[in-house]
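Dear U.,

For the methods section draft, I wanted the exact inputs and outputs in one place so we can describe them consistently. I've listed the two proteins in the order they'll appear in the manuscript figures. Please don't edit the token lines directly; just add comments below if something needs changing.

First protein:
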Amino acid sequence: MKEMIRDATSRRLFPAVLTGLLIGTTSVFYHISLATLIFSGSLSEFLASGIGLVLFGATVLGLTAALLSSLPGMIASVQDSPAAIFALVAAAIAVRVSGSGSAQQVYLTVVATLSLASLITGVVFFAMGRLGLSSFIRFVPYPVVGGFLAGTGWLLAAGALRVMTGLPLALSDLPALIRSALLPHWLPGVAFAFLMLFLSRRYKHPLLMPIMLATGLALFYAVLALTGTSMADASAQGYLLGPFPNRVLWMPLSPALLPSVDWSAVIAQTGKLVSILVLSTIGLLLNASALELAVQKDIDLDRELSVAGIGNVLGALGGSPVGFQTIGTSALSQRMGGGSRLTTLVTALLLGGALMFGASVLSFFPKVLLGGLLLSLGLSFLYDWVVASARSLPASDYVLVLLILAIIATVGFLEGVAAGTVIAVLIFVINYSRVEFVKDELTGLTYRSRMERPVEHRRLLEEKGPHILVLRLQGFLFFGTAQSLLNRIRVRLGDADQPAVRFLLLDFHRVSALDSSAVIGFTRLHQLAQAGEIKLVLAELTSTMRERLERGGLIETEGGLLRMFPSLDQAMEWCEGRMLAEDQRSIIRRAASLESRLREVFQQPGQIERFRSYLEQLDLPAGAQLIRQGDSPDAMYFVDSGRVSAHLELEPGKGIRLSSMGAGTVVGEVGLYLHQDRTASVITDMPSVVFRLTAKALTQMRERDPDLAAALHEWMVRLLAHRLTDNNRTLEALLS
């Protein structure tokens, strides 16, 4: 309210009011055309009351948007898409009720259904807005939305023909349409519609529609004058909306009349009412999202849902059809009226004035002009989604749009919506099944755990690494992807030209979820692994994934062929450890010691003893901190027994493991050689014996025993070269 008072006392007053008058005048005729669409055929005798219901709803929606919308100047109105579906609802109710009830009962049942549809839609709108569910629109397939809108265009076009002639658009009625007596009723309207469509596509001026309507009115009454047709004759021949009773248009359904409603006929239309709800939700969110781009302003979509919900609930009390925020008039309000709430208020008041005082004037409005206006709306939808979309949509999506349109035109709107949704889901499933669900395929040769190992162990793992097959999975796993994975692994296991697989490691780090059908696929994979004596290793399963697999019979047992680990690194370390443990060569067993490593490096007599003289022995319990992240480098360490791990500390109490080192390995050498602060902390995983070589001792070694220092430096160079080779091999495998 403060915004309106501020705008009313500023320079924005004149453009805001002028824009409101322009939009309001156009909206009056637009809403009359929607009322005519619904209250046609056997319901045409209630057209005056129907116009009142629609104008009442438009007034309430406009006032609600003026006061509560997140975007000042937002225009809300009764919408053509729900109205097109409701025209089918009204026709079905008329057929069902007229056989056993009066015309008055038919009207009351139609109004009750209108109110119920708006009430349900309003409640759902408000609940979605309060719960923040505006992102719902992102889950609706785009071609399905296109099919909805194309089908809406067909219903509008068919309804426009019914408004002008009283006949439905059907093949059986085509001979009657071309009779000379009916041609004047619809042919000018069709010409007007195509002219309106052509001009609106070429020119975007806001005065186009008012000028077209004024010109059409002038031509209509000029023809009446030239042919000597009186107003009474024109009305009697069905060219005019009226005559209307000389009273207020709005005649809502009072509580006393509710017993007269045929509620069985209302319930029979449940499917179409659901269609109205779904289409209205999609339409509102699409309109609001598109308007954000058009006006380049942020719009609170959840708030707009709540505002539309309030407007529809209030409108339902007076029998209004469903309505919500619009694109075109709202964008016009922003451009011409500066985005003022006064524009919305003036528009709503003008609609309210037509509701209260416009019966006598509206009765003289020609049906052919309203039918032409409706037909132009329908043709606009059909052009966008049948003609223009052929150039922008993929072939499969375009065919789906045409299929939905064909089903809506020949069978029914709900059937078209349902079939389109089901087909879109099937297309998605088929396409998603073709998406690469294996992000990387690696082996134990191209991917290593972070466990530092002696040279002999590394050589063995290079020799036998190809027997470890690593598949890093991604996406959502369901029956399609699970079956494709099973087929892929079956082909790999049966390939005699590649090394036999002894360990099959599946990484689930990038898997979002898996359904019950995927569990069946993994159960079959487990059976396949058991038949080939292959160890199946699963890494980084979420608790939900693990629970589902266990329910499907995939349970980890000690000594079994199925193992599960919290990380890929731990799973890979286990596979490497099993492979090393199974090797019976003594050189492999001896390699896991510092003494063996020193014998390999220092081959001259007495070098090992001299090297040990520079070392300090540390006997450390589990959990002891050998190196602290951020400290200055003062030593390097040689692990004699036990195991230590390097951890990157992200924040206090939280970190990730970078690598682990066992007997015969070195830690801390990089920082010492580069003279850089420690980049990670090193902690013992178990009681360990470690020898420390300080920076001071290394300097003394260089001065007193250069041959010994050279051998040590050569050891470090080979160690770093091995690490670099492993990293390059893994990187090459990931990028290939």
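Second protein (the one for the lower panel):
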Amino acid sequence: MNQPTPAIVAQSAVRRLPRVALLLFCLAYLLPGFIGREPWKSADMTAFGYMADLAHGNASWLKPELLGLPSDVDGLLPYWLGAWALQWAPGWVAPDFAVRIPFILLLALTLAATWYGVYYLARSPQAQPVAFAFGGEANPADYARAMADGGLLALIACLGLAQLSHETTPALAQVCFAALTFYAVAAMPYRTAGPLVGLAVGLGGLVLSGAPMMAVLFSAGSALICLMDRPRESHAARRADIGVAALALMTLLAAALAWQFDLWRWRMAQPGSGQMAGWIEWRNLGRLLLWFTWPAWPLALWTVWRWRRQLGSRHVALPLWFATVAAGATLTMQASDRSLLLGLPAMAALAAFALPTLRRSVAALIDWFTLIFFTSCAFTIWVVWIAMQTGVPRQPAANVARLAPGFEPSFSLISFAIALLATLAWAWLVKWRVGRHRAAIWKSLVLPAGGAALSWLLLMTLWLPLLDFARSYAPLVRNVAARLDQPECVEVYGLSRGQIAAFQFHGQLRLKPAALKAQCPWLLVDADTQSTLRKSVNLRQWALQATVRRPSDDDEDVLLYQRTGK
């Protein structure tokens, strides 16, 4: 017998995940990485530098610059948000944390928009499970809530989301506005005001965050999908027509907004020259697609296969279109991982629709693999932390000393307590998952999401001092500042945007671009640009004083020159 849908779900399988537990789980994933750390290299530190210059009036709000260097991301809104946060924050709030406050809200909005987007897609008639002959099939509202819980868990479980979603960069703003656009289109058959506001904010935000082409493609493709999947009921059809008209209008407005702010840029990645270079590039992209979207991508592929007779339905076509656009941008754009980030909410939605079609053996395989993988990750993090604190085991302690020379471990009772509670919660979650209790449709994604959140939280507590030392410019700036005598200014040549921002923030130095005639008593030069230094600087006026290395990176040396007075 041909079934209208591959989903066979009983009412007993759609019990909701407790809201308090879901909220605490989201907070445990949301806050670590935003609180207590320093700005990391290089995109995080670079974005902070542009925000600080805007807040202090050193750059134009329409063309953000950092010491005369334009941003390599054609976005405006993320820098505005950080600059406004700096201007409005009270003096006792650290500047690097103040800029993170709006981005905390953006990540929270991403999670909420993904949940509601999956919820409204699951309310679609084509997405409903098979009706049983004697009743007992899942109630539509309960089914949609359970599917939305699964979609949110799938998003948190994605390995590539953790770091990039906790940085104050345009990438986080872009994924938030992509998720808002996804929610708006998904909810259009059921709501009017909320989706229209979400669509305007989502598309406008994508344009002003540096992704105008993605905004246009998302909107245009969504309009076509809505036309193809137009409901038959008069009321729903009328609402769908309003949605299509809104999508068409918003597409034109998004293109006009990008034109007005001169945000159209084509940053296509150049393929590697030669057969070997091309193979390496494709291999790296393949690895990125595999790990960045794990475990959502195998579930998404399973959804496409099992729902292949409903590929034109909005609950499959819409997330598939968003994921395809993001994957296409990944293959053609320079910042491939940040482009792929925009597709994670849609890929999580596809993964959610695999849940009602999974066999018990497949679900068990996911559980066991997840249990082994994340338990091993947590064990490794704890062992290395113990080695840093006590020197035992010797080999992990020696590896840390070799990779981060000069690092001095510190103990934080608060971090230790949080990490211990999280580990105990993981043990309880594993015990609950393997126990005998009523099945829930989202159960297969509890361990992947819990394991991802646990690993991220342990890294942001136990390993945070080490990661700050290894990924922050602060040690390099301190080593340079120790050789300076509070100069009135410092000239720089060849430094990256992140290094410039770090010397301004950590070292409180007033920097100037290097010139043929010396203006400041000191000159900082990136070692890799030393060969072209003579073209911009009269070296007879300078004497090399030291080569300062970033402790955790031998390839990031800075040359320190002092003016000789000639």
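Candidate sentences for the figure legend, describing the second protein: Residues 474-563 form one domain. The mean pLDDT is 90.

Thanks,
Y.
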